[in-house]
Structures are given as structure tokens and as C-alpha cells.
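Running this now, will post back.
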Amino acid sequence: MTTSTANEVSAEIVDAALRAAETLGRDVADVPLVAIAREAGVSRSTLIRRLNGSRQLLDDAVRAAGVEPGGRPPVRERAIEAAGSLISDHGLAAVTLEAVAAQADCSVHSLYAVFGGRDELLRAVFDRYGPILDLEEAVSDPNAELSEVVHRVYAVLATAFSREPRVAPAMLAEGLARPTSPAVQALLQYHVPRILAGVGQWLAAEIAAGRIRDLPLQLLIQQMLAPIAVHTMVRPAAVNIPEIDLPDLDTARTVFADAFLRAVAI
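Update: finished.
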């Protein structure tokens, strides 16, 4: 006797289930079979026969396509959270698709369906927990004062490098320890052009306007980002050393921002 699997449910039936769920505003698991059958253009009895009498078979096929049939967040959200937790706890090397699937309670096939591969998953994780998107927003106002933007940037960096899960510090540490690894190179090739397009273009405009000293752009970016990034990375370990009396994080990032302005502003 052959046992039917989710792979035997046709893509047309899965698509019909998703369309019916969207139309009714419900999870797939809550959509009546008659509504799915109507969307698929078949009778309810035909649909049940194609599912071998098992509603679970349809739910499994929908899940394999990257959509949760009901109740839980979608695979994309669970996978990003799972990968972020793995990076924070065990480093970038721990993020295999198998490990993410196990922690997110989904299949590896679902991860491929949603992300296409590990590199795309890591990009989504860093977009979620890293500073890139917030940095792009922080420098987006062309009418803001230099001091205002710098302090905004340092606030973004302080938040990104100190929040849980600690994805940004873990990825930066990975880049320092294994700069030539394929995963690190893939992330750099994706994010560095965005940093240059956001923070880099803003700094270049400030130089052109005569508000910042004309320094090499890449070095200027490092001078701006590195102090607060390093401070927030080592801060959790330093607070447990009695001889070290650190100021609160808001005070620290204000000090770093003011120091940057004194160093480069005209």
C-alpha cells in the first residue's frame, strides 16, 4: 500500500487554496474544502479524492510551498527569527538550512521556496536585525543639520549592535575572523554598496557642501561607524569587570558622536 505525500498535491490545488484563503481573509486551515474546490474549478468530491481523503495532505503541501496553513506566523518570519537566534547564540557557521528548518519547525524545501538559498536568508536576517535600513532612513533628510544626522546615525548603531538577538555583532565578528569565507563575502557584496549609496552619498554631499573635511570616503565611513560598533560589541563583557565603570549607552554614543563631529566637521 502506497502512502500519499504532500508532493503529490498539485500546484493548482495549492494555488486554489491560497486564493480562497485570501478571498475569505482566513488561514488556509480555516477555509472550507468546498470553497477551495470552487476556486480550483472541481467538485468537492473530486478535491477530496485528489487529497486521498486527507485534509492534512493539503496543509502539508501548503506548508511545503512556504505558507503556514494556519495559526502560526509564516515560514519567512519564523525562519528569520530562528536564524537570528542561531547567529546570536552560536555564530554564522551554525546557520545551515537544516538547523533553521528544525528551529523554525518547517521543511528545508519551504526555506528554498521562500528564500531561494542560504545567502538570501542571511541577507533577510541582517536586513531585519542589522543597521542598514535604519541607517538609510537616518541620512535620508537632505535638509537636516550635520550634527542632527550624526547623532541619529550613532543612535541607530547603538541600538543595532546592542539589541537581542545580537546579530550585528556576531556578523561583524565573523567578518573580522573569516573575511574571505563565502558567506562573509556574499554579505559584504550585498551590503557594502548599500552603505556607500546611503551613508557614503550623504558624507560625500557634506564634503561637497564644505561641512566635512575632504577625507577618503571609505576611511571616513570607518571613522564614523567603528567606535560605537566596537564599544557596543565589547560592552556586555566589560560590564562584568568591577574595575571598568562604563557610562550608560546613551551617554556613550553621544560622546562618540560629538568626537566624530570635532574630528571631521569644518
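Residues 164 and 200 are 27 Å apart (CA to CA). More later if anyone needs it.
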